[in-house]
Amino acid sequence: MSDPLPRVPGGPGVSRFVQRGEHRLSYESRGAPGAPPVLVLHDLLAARGQLRDLADALTNAGWEAVLADVRGHGASPLISGPGYPPAELAADANIIQ
Quick one: 8 exposed, middle or buried, by C-beta within 10 A (0-12, 13-18, 19+)? Predict the structure, then answer.
C-alpha cells in the first residue's frame, strides 16, 4: 500500500497531479488547511467539476474537500489497457487521500 500524499497548498480549482504507476491522476482540494479531509469521487462518465457545489457545502461545514478525477476522466488522462477494476480505483483513491 502506498503512503498518502502530504497536503499541498493550493486554492479551489487548482489542479494538482499525482502519478501512480503509469496513471496520472488529477485532483484539487478546497477548504481550510488542517481541516479534516474528505475525498469526493464522481461517478463513471463524470468529472470532479460536477461536484463543486457539494465540495463548497463540505468546506462550509468545516471539512477539506478533496475532489479527484478518476482514471480517464476530467483532467486525468485517458488510459490504455483494462478499464476500471474496483481494486485499482480504490488504490488510486488511497494515494490521493
Answer: exposed
Q: Is residue 6 part of a domain?
A: no
Q: Which cell numbers in the block locate residue 14?
A: 487548482
Report d(CA 19, CA 51) in Å as an integer.
23
C-alpha cell at 22: 503509469
- Based on its alpha-carbon atoms, the radius of gyration of the chain, rounded to whole angstroms, reads 13
* Entry pTM: 0.75
The C-alpha atoms of residue 36 and residue 46 are separated, in whole angstroms, by 25
Note whether residue 11 is domain-resident: no
* Percent of residues, the chain, with pLDDT higher than 70: 85
CATH number of 88's domain: 3.40.50.1820
Alpha-carbon gap, residue 79 to 52, rounded angstroms: 24
